Amino acid sequence: MKAKNRSFENIAKTLKKYRLQHPRKISQVELSNLLGYKNGQFVSNVERGICAIPLKALNDLQRVLLIPQDELVQAMVKDFEQTVLNHLDETKPDNP
Length: 96
Prior knowledge:
This protein is mainly α. It has a single domain (9-88), classed as lambda repressor-like DNA-binding domains (434 Repressor (Amino-terminal Domain)). Helix content is 59%, strand content 0%. The protein contains 5 helices and no strands. The protein has helices spanning 9-21, 28-34, 41-47, 58-65, 69-90. Helix 1 (9-21) packs antiparallel against helix 5 (69-90) and helix 2 (28-34) packs across helix 3 (41-47).
């Protein structure tokens, strides 16, 4: 049985939305640097839904992009919920 990927769709959309709407039009490279990463690949990966934002970076992300806390939390909760549903779906026994 192949494991399904975890869901990062909602945090990806939220991050990209606020990055592109930011008054300074922050680039992926600039945001990565502001979050303590050396290149823009990190933000690119998050925006494509490949990986999550580490919890240690959430405060800086919220501060830099001016994301309302409740919206950030809601995006992460939705992703976790989808991850759990994916896991439950993939581990259901086959019905004969």
